[in-house]
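In this section we walk through a basic example: taking a raw amino acid sequence and producing a predicted 3D structure, encoded as C-alpha cells. The instruction is simple. Fold the sequence below.
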Amino acid sequence: MRKFVITIDISAPAERVWQVMSDVERWHEWTPSITSVKRLNGGPFDVGSRALVRQPKFPPALWKVSAIEAGRSFTWVSTAPGLRVIGYHAVAPTANGSRASLAVELQGFLGDL
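The resulting C-alpha cell sequence is shown next.
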C-alpha cells in the first residue's frame, strides 16, 4: 500500500472551498492534473455517484463515491486490474480561512511497488 497526502491553506471560507471541491466537473478549470471529469449520473453528488476522470498520461478512470460528509469531505474509489485507488478530499475551517486536503491510497499489486 502507498499513500500520498497533500494539504493547502486557503484564505476562503470552508463552505466556499467545499463548493469548488465538490463540483468535480469543473476541476479541469483550476488544476492541470485533470483534463476532464464527466459525472455519469444526475442528481446530487452523493454516495454512489460515478464519474469518468481523464488525466494527462493516464487512461480514463471510473470513480465511485463511497462516503460523503456534505460540506466537509468525500471519498471515492477507482479500480483497475491489480489496483484499487482510494481518493479522499476534505476541507476544514481554520482561523484564516480553510485547509483543503487530498489523500490518495494505492492498494493491490501496483500499490505495493
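Looking at the output, two observations stand out. The first strand starts at residue 2 and ends at 10. Helices lie at 14-22. In the next section we compare this with other chains.
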